[in-house]
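Inputs:
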Amino acid sequence: MEPTPRTSSQPAAWAPLFVIVLSAVSCSSPKEAAKAPPPAGPVGTPIEIPVPLGLPPVAAPANNKPTVETVALGKKLYYDTKLSADDTVSCASCHGPAHGFTDGSPVSTGVGGKQGGRSAPTVLNAAYSPVQFWDGRAASLEEQAGGPIANPIEMNLPHEAAVRKLNADGEYPKLFEKAFGPGPATIEKVQMAIASFERTVISGNSPFDRYQFGGDKKALSPAAARGLAIFKDAAKGNCVKCHTIDDKYALFSDGKFHNLGVGMNAEGELADLGRYTQTKVEADKGAFRTPTLRNIAQTAPYMHDGSAKTLRRVVDFYVGGGNSNPQLDKDIKKLELSGREREDLVAFLESLTGEIPKEVLSQ
Amino acid sequence: MKRLPFVFVTLVFSGCNSAPKPEKAKVPVSTTAPKVEYFHVDAATAGAVHGRVSFAGKKPVRKKIDVSEDPMCAKMHAAGLYDESVVVNPNGTLANVFVYVKQGLEGKTFEPSKEPVVIDQKGCRFAPRVFGIQTGQPLNVVNSDPVTHNIHPLAQVNRAWNQSQDPQTEPLKRRFLQREVMIRVKCNIHSWMRAWIGAVEHPYFAVSAQPDGSFELPNLPPGDYTIEAWHEVYGVQEQKITVKPSGKEDVSFTFKGE
């Protein structure tokens, strides 16, 4: 933890986000708002989230600055199957530490074995995404956290029922009071606590970070170092075009939506329209948010539909120029890479496995 | 911006053929198309063209292919993979020559066969290397390999496309809607892989066989025809021929090596 609390830890670029966050939180449940005033916010001991090498400071909305108590409560909720209809599924079931905070499956399985159509993305570094989900349909981690609880194919527990369950629990009421002051648990508090916990689920200080930002030129193997050069070279991999590396940190995502042609069916049609489902803009058909590549070696299978089993297959997919379709991103084209260069890229991707703070793992 | 991928394709790959033809509007395989009268061949008078493609000259030495792009492919060809652009049969005939009726069937519309033509990606090669397909006939693309392929028909009259295909995935199902002889096919991941597809709007096409160089165009209505033979290295030749009622006409071609 940093000793001096910062007064303005957010870069100005995040400012517009807060407006969205605020409105999203206050609009999300007008019924609830009518019954009880919206929570004033966390009351406990504020914390500054320690940032490992290679990552920028973690931004949080003004009304939900992380505290010791909200993070602890959020962690308990995140790992607790009580948030599901039949006490079988927790957030960690689909975003668990054993698979780099994913579920290791092409598509996820929720309560009663129900399956969705998309692969669970990692929660690692989700704190840095300007929007959540493959199609960007949630504006914040707070908004996102409400989704899976009530989703019939995920945890299938309506919000009122979830809150009732927590308020009747032996432990939760006092944890909510510690975190948010007097008053019962509400779905907003649940969402805020989970979001605060997720802001601590970050991964940096990987061999790549030590090489790139820590001046340790031995941190990467020669193959991985060559792979990094290919990753950055506009005439070779050009991966940084979307999986960004900045001067002082690397998020490996531009937070934008791109069509690679992933998820094309046998007839050559896009099976999932992705961003288009939110915007209805023709150019967004088949576009998905650029995912982070942190801890990518642990999160197979890959892509929004879990269609690529290995990193080599992902690299081959890019070498082939993706799948042609009218909305294919202009930066996706056939790559001229030798066999060794393809292997180097894989070696580089494998160097992105970072340190995850041990406090975020289940006890 | 939406057009960009296709423009790119055209610019880069128009190299060996004639100047790129203007892009045709996309023809949807729609059900609203006007009803067509299909031509039916009268079995009582139908004839046939058959023959053989000979090879004259020195049999070229087959070059060894560099397969280092993919260690899995290299493993499948421990003894080396050799270029197959010229396949001379032991009896001196030439295989992989695409023979088809170029002219003489104008005004007749043939129902596309519903039987899919299959192209397999096997041993990091396309199999078959040269084949014909009727316009509108289904093409199934199979991947029997343990590696990812990305088939890319560099069509200039038809729409060009490319699609990645992982091992053990269902066949891709496509069609070509316009005559195009030939469509060069590449794999975007394995630079040595080649195939050639002849798309014609009738069923009168064949490929000279391995191992005897023979071909046959059966069930042909009587008439005057131009028969074209195409080889990927040695170019095209054509012959005019008259098929008499129930006639079996012999047409042979000879391609010369260097």
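The longest helix of chain A spans residues 15-27. Flag for discussion at group meeting.
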